[in-house]
Amino acid sequence: MEKTNIGIVSYGLYLPAETETAEQIAARSGLSIEAVRGLGIEGKCRPEAEDQPVTMAVKAARQALERAEGINPEDVDLILWTGEEYKDYIAQTASIRLQEEVGCPKAWAFDLVGQGITTVLGLRIARDMMISDANINTVLLAGGTRNVDLVDYTNPDTHFMLPFSASGGAVLLRRNYDRNRLGEIVLTVDPEMADEIYVPGGGTEIPFREDNLNSKIMFFQTPHPEKVAAYLNQRFPQALAEAAQKVLPDAAPDFLALRHLAPAQRTLVLNRLGIRPDHSPALDQWGCHGTNDVLCSLDFGIKGGTLKDGSRVVLLAAGIGFTYAAAVIYWG
Asked: Which of 28, 97, 138, 299 is deepest in the core (most CB within 10 A)?
């Protein structure tokens, strides 16, 4: 790492213009407005028909390339899909569709699946590949999410997923780039939770048929809701904080780009890490964007003036599985 500086040249973020308010979510779900706000929801982005995962990722990737002075699409050597597994089509290689739409003819591409941590996972994979292969100098990470489609608002067992929203995000990395340098990146999992949250229908075990369409199998389910609730209340914030402490063990970060959390969970994480709330923007107004949460938080920190040159930034993500990821960026 000392001999190969790899830095973030630019990023892109696309958020649908339409929104869904806490009041609207309460009406759809049957929850009180206080319960909805207790999930960390003041509002969230609502995707329109044209806001498909790949389409949103393309918009974010174009932003990233437009912001990268001196780098053209033809310079990209590798493209990684860092969006969600649920995308425009089943069994689609989204990275190749993204490659054609953005216009990167020399690149090769493949998809990553990491649930809510895929952006940070992509940083790790891209960094390691750039270190090991001198022919990879520029990498584009991009992905979209609209897992909100898979949430049944009326299912009390999955109300914790009501913050799910939609977006596209992208990051452009460059070898021998001395700004916004990548540091330590850590990935962890709790494998005993592997099959506690999933969408039953559409896979090989329960394929869609005429008699099961428009049923609950099309939405996220929890076979053991009490186990999931206990995990989210206890282990989830603890595991997030542990991941952050592994990448920056001797000091608190200057800025924490943290995934969306309910207020109680968020307070636990910030307190354990010694982070002031104004140094880690809450995403209550925008919802949960899964893999793109860390980019949303980073963007708000930059635009709000909290994130400055010299800041030690930690990207902190988590997803069902359950899986956790943290990355240090030496900003500026």
From this structure: 138
Q: Average pLDDT for residues 126-146, to the nearest whole number? A: 97
What b/e sequence results for 242-255 when a residue is b if at least 16 CB atoms lie within 10 Å of its CB, and e otherwise? ebbbebbeeebbbb
Q: Write down which residue in 146, 178, 210 finishes a domain.
A: 178
Domain boundary among 178, 196, 218: 178
- Domain range for 258 is 183-330
Residues 74 and 135 in one domain: yes
Per-residue model confidence (pLDDT) at position 225: 97
Reply yes or no on whether the pLDDT at 2 is more than 90.
no
Whether the full predicted model's pTM is greater than 0.90, yes or no, is yes
Q: Is 309 exposed, middle or buried (0-12, 13-18, 19+ CB in 10 A)?
A: exposed
Q: Is 31 helix (H, G, I), strand (E, B) or coil?
A: coil
Average pLDDT estimate for 294-320: 95
What pLDDT does 106 receive?
A: 96
Query: Please, are residues 188 and 324 in contact by the beta-carbon 8 Å criterion?
Result: yes
Number of domains in the chain: 2
Q: H or E element: which one contains 63?
A: helix 53-67
Q: Please compute the mean of the pLDDT values over residues 300-311 and round it to a whole number.
A: 92
In this model, does residue 42 exceed pLDDT 60? yes
Q: Are residues 174 and 187 in the same domain?
A: no
Strand, coil or helix: what is 221? strand
Residue pair 280/257 in contact by the 8 Å Cβ criterion: yes
